[in-house]
Structure formats: structure tokens, C-alpha cells
Write a structure and sequence with these properties.
heterodimer; A: 8 helices; globular; B: 320 residues; mainly alpha
Chain lengths: 211, 320
């Protein structure tokens, strides 16, 4: 039942929102993973980020799409928790250290050949500005050395729905997909590599600072 | 909801498809004959024309209300493109919502035959409302730039384009051959035809640059050739699609061509200022909506007021 609702929600709400209300300028869509296991990482500015990334892939892989999201935020009440886990299909990540591995859900998703969507910045932060990347992604990468990591740079969604705003303003969103990042168990500086590739993607566009 | 448009309008749409079909056929033949040449650019462009003409024809065969909603949607896309290109301030997040809300209202006045409101809503009321709301937010740094660019965008993409829709709300003009939709078809077809005609004239004869700083490829020869050709085509098309006769139809073609050129170079100047080549990549091979309707942003109000003046005269009593 919730699987049907999930399809309906993405077909009737999320896709029209992404492609009609917002409008996406996608570059290099062919670099996106076709099937799992795979990891898509992106910079994080807005709640819309997850929905836009999920609209980039065909509806047929929807059951495989699992965005990693903060458990304390999205599971804070029953209804939100139902929506987040059943409809969006999030993998809850515990942001506080309290029993068990906070990334256990991510490992499980990758073992099930799912496509994990991850925001290495950890939270949305200031709109249209990158923050320091957290270590989580390198922990996952070390455990799954053969899973490709595709970086995506998003621009404009922070302007459409910045943190703390409830009113969505239609705004074109640029989506620049990078080459999958090669990584091995010995790659010490994965964070640095990801940072560089996101920065390189950002340079493909000419984005003035948003004040 | 769907009704058969008047005879001449139906024939016009059928001919558009005829031209499109012929071009597609020619491209296919060229591909066969000269496989070494890359035709991918012209192929994507033609494919996009198929989509655009189909969507436009659907709008034309829809009833008036649906056609007006369709044109409002084009305005929405163009305004969104404009907003995504210009630098906006974070403080103005909610102001932009008000600006967006003016779009459905403006097209509602069109639907409602409320000419008095249609003609002052954005130039007067929105022009006063947005800065007032911005003052209550209180950010003064960059105030003039933000208020100015925002309103300029609304004028170009919403107010000007809504004149094309108002052609559908002129029932007082008796046009048995094609109905009010004939005027819209006449405007849009001649505007797009003029783009092509200016390009062809410029390519074949163009020598003297007309606005070198803005559009280095545009020439006097292209401009004048385009105006002359469009005037002649207008002269022959007008009896089928409009109530215009004789000199009036020749002048109609010429002013659509000249004002279309102005719209084209204005949008080019904006793109140069912002340092972009296309407004977006919504229409493969063409760029964004704003790149496609650039000429229409000026030719729509100019043609509308030409028609309006001819058929309602200079004084308001004649509206009654």
C-alpha cells in the first residue's frame, strides 16, 4: 500500500514540482548510476535537495532510492516518521552517539544493492554555501570500496526554499553531475577528493554569492 | 473544452504542420545524401519545433479560458527564467512570492475582459505594492537595484506577454474568418517568421552591423529584409486571420517585424549584461523560453495597441 502511495507521491507531486514549478538544468545526467549499489552525494541547502535528486533517476528505480537523513529530525513524531520512512524511504542516521553504529542503516541499504543518497555536509546550513564535510562518507567508502560515488552539485534550491522558510519560491535549479569518484581502501583523503570534485562542478556554473 | 477553431485558423495550423513536415523530410534527405555532415543541431531544433507547435496548436484549439491559462503559464516560465538569472537578495524571498502572484491575477483580468485593470495592474499597482512590501522588510542595501530589476522583469515577461492573451478578449472586433484566435496566430506566426527572415537575409546579404555592441551578427540588411518580407507575408495572411485590410495589414507586418527585432536585441543585451548565452536549456536547441519569446515580449504589446487603436479609436467611449 505505502509502496503505491510512494509511486503516486513521486509521480504526481515530486516530479511536477521538480520539472515544472522549479525547472531543472541538468548537465551530464548520463553519469548518474543506472542501478545499485551506488552512492550519490550532493551539497545540501534545502529540503528540496533530496526530492530533486530523487527525480533525476527514472521512476523504475524508485524502490532502490534511499536518502540518508537525520533520525532525530525526521523521526521526531509518528506522522513525519511514517512519511519519511514509507513515502520518501529515508535511511535514518543517528546524529548523536547513542548505542550502535549510526551508519548501520546505510551499510544495510548498500548491501541490499540500493542507491544511497547522502549529503556529506551533514545538515543544510547557510543557503547556497558549502560547509565542511563530515567523516561519515569515508567510513562508508572504506567498508564498500567497489561502490561508485557520484558527486552532484546543486545550485538554486537554497534560494527556492532556504532553511527556516516555509514558502517555496519557484526558481530554476542547476544540477551538475560529476564523474564517479574512484576510491580504494587506501584512499586516505577521500573527503579532500570529494571536496575538489564538488568545487570543480561548482566552477562549471558562474554563481555569484547570494546575500 | 476543445472546440474546432474557425476555418482559417484550422487551415493555418495545418499549414504550420505542413512546413514542419517538409523541413523534417528535407533534413532526413540531407542526412542520407551527406552522412559526413553533422546535422544534430538542426535536428534537435526541428524536434523542438514539433513540440512547440503542437503545444501552441493545442492552446489555440482550446477554449478561450484554457488558452489564456496556457499563455499565463508561458509568462510564468519566462519570469522564472528571468528571476533565476538576475541577482536577487535573500531578504526579498517573500517579495518574489508577491511578484509571482501577480501572474494569475494579470491573466484573470484578461479572461474577465477587464481592460482598465489589465492595463494598469502591473505598471501601477504592482509597481507601488512591491516596493512598499520591501520597505516593511527593511533591507535598504541594494533596494533600488532589487526593486528595479524585479519590476522590469514583470513588465517584460508578464505585462508585455499578457497583451498576446488579450487579443483573445477583443470580441468587439468582428473577425468572422478566424475569430479572435486569428489575431493571436497572426502575431505569433509573423513574429517567429520574422526571426527566420532576418536571419536568412542577414546570412545572405548582411554587411553593415546594426547593433554591434549587443548582437554582432545582426545587420541592417537582415533587419530591413526581414521587415520587408514580413510586411509582404502579413499583407497576404491578414485577410484570412485578421479584419485588417490593405495598407493596414502591410503596416501590421512591418511593425511586428520591427518591434520583434527590438525585443530580440533587448533580451540579448540582458543576457550580455548577465554573462549568459541562453536563458536556460528548457527547449533543446533553442535555449530557454525567454530566448524563444524574446521578440514577442515587444511585438505583442505593439501589435495589440495597433489593433486596439484601429478598432476602438482614441477615446474610451468607444469601448462601451
Amino acid at each position: 500500500m505505502s509502496q503505491i502511495l510512494r509511486y503516486l507521491f513521486f509521480f504526481l507531486v515530486v516530479r511536477p514540482l521538480s520539472y515544472v514549478i522549479l525547472g531543472l538544468n541538468v548537465r551530464h545526467a548520463e553519469r548518474l548510476p543506472k542501478n545499485g549499489p551506488a552512492i550519490i552525494i550532493a551539497n545540501h541547502n534545502s529540503h528540496l535537495d533530496t526530492l530533486v535528486l530523487m527525480s533525476l533517476l527514472p521512476l523504475s528505480v524508485l524502490p532502490k532510492l534511499r536518502p540518508a537523513a537525520a533520525g532525530d529530525y525526521f523521526l521526531r513524531n509518528r506522522w513525519l516518521a511514517w512519511f519519511a520512512t514509507e513515502i520518501i524511504g529515508i535511511v535514518p542516521v543517528a546524529r548523536t552517539q547513542k548505542g550502535g553504529n549510526p551508519l548501520a542503516g546505510c551499510f544495510e541499504a548498500l548491501r541490499a544493492n540500493d542507491i544511497l543518497i547522502l549529503f556529506p555536509e551533514g545538515s543544510r546550513g547557510e543557503p547556497e554555501r558549502m560547509q565542511r564535510l563530515k567523516q561519515g562518507i569515508s567510513v562508508i567508502a572504506r567498508k564498500f570500496p567497489n561502490v561508485p560515488i557520484t558527486p552532484v552539485f546543486l545550485h538554486g534550491l537554497g534560494k527556492s526554499l532556504p532553511k527556516g522558510e516555509v514558502i517555496l519560491i519557484p526558481h530554476f535549479c542547476d544540477v551538475f553531475v560529476g564523474e564517479p569518484i574512484a576510491h580504494t581502501e587506501s584512499n586516505q583523503d577521500l573527503i579532500g577528493t570529494i571536496n575538489d570534485s564538488l568545487a570543480a562542478l561548482e566552477k562549471e556554473g558562474d554563481f555569484p554569492a547570494w546575500e | 473544452m476543445i472546440h474546432l477553431p474557425p476555418f482559417a485558423a484550422t487551415v493555418t495550423i495545418a499549414s504550420l504542420y505542413g512546413v514542419l513536415f517538409l523541413s523534417t523530410l528535407i533534413i532526413l534527405l540531407l542526412k542520407r545524401m551527406r552522412p559526413e555532415v553533422d546535422f544534430s543541431e538542426v535536428t534537435t531544433r526541428t524536434n523542438s519545433w514539433w513540440v512547440m507547435i503542437t503545444i501552441f496548436s493545442l492552446a489555440v484549439i482550446l477554449e478561450r479560458g484554457a488558452a489564456i491559462i496556457f499563455l499565463g503559464f508561458i509568462s510564468f516560465l519566462a519570469f522564472k527564467e528571468y528571476l533565476s538569472l538576475i541577482p536577487t537578495r535573500r531578504a526579498d524571498h517573500r517579495i518574489l512570492l508577491w511578484a509571482y502572484l501577480s501572474i494569475p491575477l494579470q491573466f484573470f483580468w484578461v479572461y474577465n475582459y477587464w481592460y482598465g485593470m489589465f492595463i494598469v495592474f502591473i505598471p501601477v499597482w504592482i509597481f507601488l505594492l512591491l516596493p512598499m512590501r520591501m520597505v516593511t522588510i527593511g533591507a535598504t542595501e541594494g533596494f533600488l537595484r532589487a526593486a528595479g530589476t524585479l519590476h522590469w522583469g514583470l513588465m517584460i515577461t508578464v505585462f508585455n506577454l499578457s497583451h498576446a492573451a488579450y487579443l483573445l478578449s477583443l470580441p468587439q472586433i468582428d473577425n468572422p474568418m478566424a475569430g479572435s484566435v486569428g489575431l493571436l496566430l497572426f502575431l505569433v506566426i509573423l513574429t517567429q517568421f520574422n526571426d527566420v527572415a532576418q536571419y536568412v537575409w542577414g546570412k545572405s546579404l548582411g554587411r553593415r552591423k546594426i547593433v554591434p555592441a549587443v548582437s554582432p551578427k545582426k545587420t541592417w540588411e537582415g533587419f530591413l529584409g526581414g521587415v520587408a518580407t514580413t510586411a509582404v507575408v502579413g499583407f497576404f495572411l491578414a485577410p484570412y486571420l485578421t479584419p485588417l485590410e490593405g495598407w493596414h495589414s502591410l503596416i501590421a507586418g512591418a511593425i511586428i517585424a520591427a518591434s520583434g527585432f527590438v525585443g530580440d536585441v533587448i533580451v540579448s543585451a540582458v543576457k550580455r549584461d548577465l554573462g549568459v548565452k541562453d536563458c536556460s536549456n528548457l527547449i533543446p536547441g533553442h535555449g530557454g523560453i525567454l530566448d524563444r519569446v524574446d521578440s514577442l515580449t515587444v511585438s505583442a504589446p505593439v501589435f495589440f495597441h495597433y489593433i486596439f487603436y484601429l478598432y476602438t479609436g482614441p477615446r474610451l467611449e468607444s469601448l462601451l
